[in-house]
Write a structure and sequence with these properties.
The chain has about 350 residues and is of the alpha/beta class. The protein contains 8 helices and 15 strands.
């Protein structure tokens, strides 16, 4: 593979996000001899780390594999701890270069000068990626190409209602034990809401589900649906369907009907979206569904040299991208980048 003969400070590719899609891109880049770096705003596979502690995947282990490394599990459906262990093994096996707790602030294009090993003088553009570490240190890295594998689980949907920023309001499911004998209101009607409600109930919490639709979502896991429906039917878990939350107060939740539910804790499990603001500021155009405009074959956006992978392409249709299909995006993108390096 021909390398890019550029200054040492200029990398071939910067990969934003250390989820399965980003890791897949990093593995492919290393295997093709590209100079790469992964930037991750949190921890390794940060989205999976944020999953409910006792979560069981809806898929089989081999469909979570990347880089050809086997995912061995004694269970038909792997658990969150098993997935975290597997992806740690991936990073160790391939010795991937990842900068953790490094949040990307901006992606801009600037002139990089002339390129070519023979001094052809051909002009090229580079990307300047500005980031900030958890300790407040800012730096700018440069690369010929950028892959945005940012996912969507780090950006919860904000309802924009009074009280949403109160300290007892959460956007991610947590350990249920602290809520023993507390009143917990869970807003949402998908898998996260259903599984959280069941765990809270079994830990001794008084749980109420609030959902704006008349029923739970059709995408509820088949082994979760009868459990949650039976608990609601018997009254073990209360429910308010067809209603939205109007306001959150220190001790309760006010519904649009005027009813106020007692709440020691509120979990707004209403979905997540990719960081479209970062994309838009980088010049990426968005579709009506808030997904980035991109080539479905190469995953390149309308900004030449800037690619999107995994959950970053989903927009509001987050149910269309999973680890099972997003894990292939990174390798396809690197194939395109490597081919351009030989041009």
């Amino acid at each position: 593979m021909a390398r890019y003969y550029q200054p040492m400070s200029l990398r071939d590719v910067l990969i934003i996000g250390a989820g399965p899609s980003g890791l897949s891109a990093a593995i492919a880049a290393k295997q093709r001899g590209l100079d790469y770096q992964v930037l991750e705003q949190g921890v390794l596979v940060n989205s999976i780390y944020r999953f409910p502690p006792q979560m069981i995947f809806f898929t089989t282990p081999e469909l979570l594999e990347i880089g050809g490394l086997p995912f061995v599990s004694p269970f038909e459906k792997p658990t969150r701890p098993e997935a975290l262990k597997y992806y740690r093994k991936v990073v160790d096996t391939f010795d991937l270069q990842i900068a953790y707790e490094e949040r990307v602030l901006a992606i801009t294009r600037e002139s990089g000068g002339s390129s070519g090993s023979g001094g052809s003088g051909e002009e090229y553009d580079v990307f300047a990626v500005e980031s900030e570490s958890a300790k407040g240190v800012r730096r700018v890295r440069h690369a010929r190409f950028v892959v945005m594998a940012i996912g969507y689980y780090d950006h919860p949907v904000i309802l924009g209602i009074p009280g949403e920023d109160l300290p007892h309001v959460h956007h991610y499911h947590a350990e249920p034990h602290p809520h023993y004998r507390q009143h917990v209101v869970i807003v949402g009607g998908g898998n996260s809401a259903a599984e959280s409600a069941l765990e809270m109930f079994r830990a001794g919490a008084h749980v109420t589900i609030v959902h704006r639709a008349p029923t739970l979502k059709s995408t509820i896991k088949y082994w979760v649906r009868p459990d949650i429906e039976n608990r609601m039917k018997e009254g073990s878990i209360a429910s308010r369907f067809g209603l939205c939350v109007r306001e959150i107060r220190p001790t309760g939740v006010v519904l649009e009907s005027g009813e106020e539910l007692a709440a020691d804790a509120v979990y707004l499990l209403t979905g997540y979206r990719a960081d479209t603001d970062l994309m838009a500021r980088a010049g990426v155009m968005l579709t009506e569904r808030q997904g980035p405009v991109h080539d479905p074959v190469t995953f390149e956006t309308n900004v030449p040299g800037l690619f999107v992978a995994g959950g970053a392409i989903a927009g509001v249709d987050t149910g269309t991208i999973f680890i099972e299909n997003g894990r292939f995006h990174g390798e396809k993108i690197i194939e395109v980048i490597a081919a351009r390096g030989r041009d």
